[in-house]
Amino acid sequence: MLLVRYGELALKKRNRRMFEERLLHNIRQKLDPFSGVTVQQTFGRMFVHLNGADAVSITQALQQVFGIVSVSPVVRTELDIGEVKGAALALMEKHDMPNVTFKVETQRANKQFPLTSQEVNREVGAHVLRNTRHLKVDVHEPDYPLTVEIRPQGVFLYTERFPGLGGLPVGTSGKVMLLLSGGIDSPVAGYFTMKRGVEIEAVHFHSYPYTSERSLKKVEDLTRQLAVYGGPIHLHVVPFTEIQTNIREQCEESFTITVMRRFMFRIAQQLAEKRGALALSTGESLGQVASQTLESMRAINEVVQLPVLRPLIGMDKQEIIGVSKEIGTYETSILPYEDCCTVFVPKSPQTRPNLERTRQNEANLDVEELVNDAVQHTEMKTFTLDDKREFASYFD
Ligand SMILES: Nc1ncnc2c1ncn2[C@@H]1O[C@H](COP(=O)(O)OP(=O)(O)OP(=O)(O)O)[C@@H](O)[C@H]1O
């Protein structure tokens, strides 16, 4: 079986129970495709009973679940030193090669056990040394620390510890609406938002026919990739052509980007309120492009009341690219595509838009009607880890 450790030990009692229940739910959901596998929560950790399923694939799946600190394949024996020695030898035999070292580390949480930790270390270590050809003991830097945990329910032995993603289980910190473009940054922002336990829904602004079906497919693929970490994700696709056309006709060219972003935020906020999301999240970082200066952010933020999370604010482009490669979104993000923001690019956009002039630029637009109309025609699709379960629906 697999031993799953989780962190955030500072959590208070009530929060801790919620954390554990949610983590258990998320692990079960993640392991749903593996038949026969069961999960059990006991004494501050979880055990995954493999029942014949492949330990490597399941460990990899668990390494994509937020809230898990590490995973170890473990062997359980009865509270009997003879059995412990046998299990220790079976675990170490596969590493019996020249120049490989080990060390037995016993933790005795069960004081009823007749031997002390030191005695278990000695007996188990001696048994392994006697029955293998090459293995040697190194107490300082062993290749394989062999942990023996003696607990009331039995003895648990393991040599490996695979790191998890850490963070909090998705669903323990409320819901956020992520503005998801087809670029590199916003999927990474979605990943970091989920890392702190937030469930996300995504919103994408699509300017058909200026932006193609292919660019929409790309955003759907990115949503699917984020669902690997967050469970099923709803994607709201907003028709944005009408608004962009109006902006182009009515606004000074240099203000089009700022005004367009204000519309995106207004619409995202309405959708967030409909769906019970408490904040927006974007892939903005400071100073990367003209629209990402503090002055721009202030002009854009002005139109919403919900908090706007910007998880990438302290990151350099190279760091963001590094994360996007690790989480598997990079290859999709760099596919050529048109975003609604790149279709009508002004020659010299305002880098420090003045608030008063921004408002004046919207004076000739029927903001409320345009926003309501876009929200009404928004289409919602749901993407899960398992593509076959994808379905589409509409809401008014
Ligand atoms: N078509 C869109 N649909 C939804 N959100 C968008 C769209 N275009 C931009 N955004 C949001 O605005 C943010 C800033 O967009 P911008 O194009 O200025 O930056 P970017 O650094 O290229 O971001 P990204 O790599 O995520 O596209 C994006 O990270 C995303 O959150």
Structure report:
By secondary structure, this protein is an alpha/beta fold. It has helices at 13-30, 55-62, 81-93, 117-130, 185-195, 213-230, 241-250, 256-275, 294-301, 317-327, 330-333, 340-343, 355-361, 367-376; strands spanning 2-6, 38-42, 45-49, 68-73, 75-77, 101-108, 136-137, 144-151, 154-158, 162-163, 175-179, 199-206, 233-239, 279-281, 308-309, 379-383, 391-394. The strands form 3 sheets. It has a 7-stranded mixed beta sheet, with helices on both faces. Helix 5 (185-195) crosses helix 10, helix 8 (256-275) crosses helix 9 and helix 8 crosses helix 14. The longest helix is centred in the C-terminal third of the chain and has 20 residues, at 256-275. The chain starts with a strand and ends with a strand. Bound molecules: adenosine-5'-triphosphate (ATP). Residues 179-181, 183-186, 203-205, 282-284, 288-289, 291-292, 339-341 line the site of adenosine-5'-triphosphate. Residues 179-181, 183-186, 203-205, 282-284, 288-289, 291-292, 339-341 line the site of adenosine-5'-triphosphate (ATP).
Per the principal axes of the C-alpha atoms, what is the gross shape? elongated
Largest sheet: 7 strands, mixed
How much of the polypeptide forms β-strand, as a percent range? 15-25%
Bound molecules: adenosine-5'-triphosphate
Number of domains: 3
| CATH fold-type name of the largest domain | Rossmann fold
Uncertain stretches: 387-396
Count of DSSP helices? 14
Q: What is the name of the CATH architecture of the largest domain?
A: 3-Layer(aba) Sandwich
Helix content: 25-40%
Broad CATH class of the largest domain: Alpha Beta
Cα-atom radius of gyration: 27 Å
Structural class: alpha/beta
Subcellular location: Cytoplasm
GO molecular function: ATP binding; CCA tRNA nucleotidyltransferase activity; tRNA binding; tRNA-uracil-4 sulfurtransferase activity
Pathway: Cofactor biosynthesis; thiamine diphosphate biosynthesis
EC number: 2.8.1.4
